[in-house]
Design goal:
Shape: globular
Radius of gyration: 17 Å
Number of helices: 0
Structural class: mainly beta
Number of domains: 1
Order of helices and strands: EEEEEEEEE
Largest sheet: 5 strands, antiparallel
Length: 142
Amino acid sequence: MRLSKIHFGFLIASIGFSKFAFATPDFFACPTEISVEQKATESSENWTVFNSQSKHPFINISFSEGDPSQRVILAPSREKQKKGAHVNIWNFSPSSSGYWVSCIYSETSVILARKLPSNTKSCEIEYDKKFSSPVVKSFKCS
């Protein structure tokens, strides 16, 4: 899998900076696109299966309590509007399972995920209003 990176805004509270020392801006960066290998599990008679070799662009983010494979996807705590963007905010309370961020890509079921630092209190995603489906413009966590 080939990965390119896109860097998003990263918010560090001045209090407790040392607690986030390991969480560099790259930690919160989803790769801009991924290449995947997909296979059809079955094909119909008279149809040929081929791989388009296309890349899949990064489009969205989700947050989960615990490993994302458990499918406990969290709804935003609140929303707000700003010029040219819709913003969703997630607030995290202490959890023994921890919280994960998942990077979602267009036209594939492949998701890249990683556990957030245990002292992450909130994350904010800004969506670009130019698209009918949600497309992440930026995100930051603190």
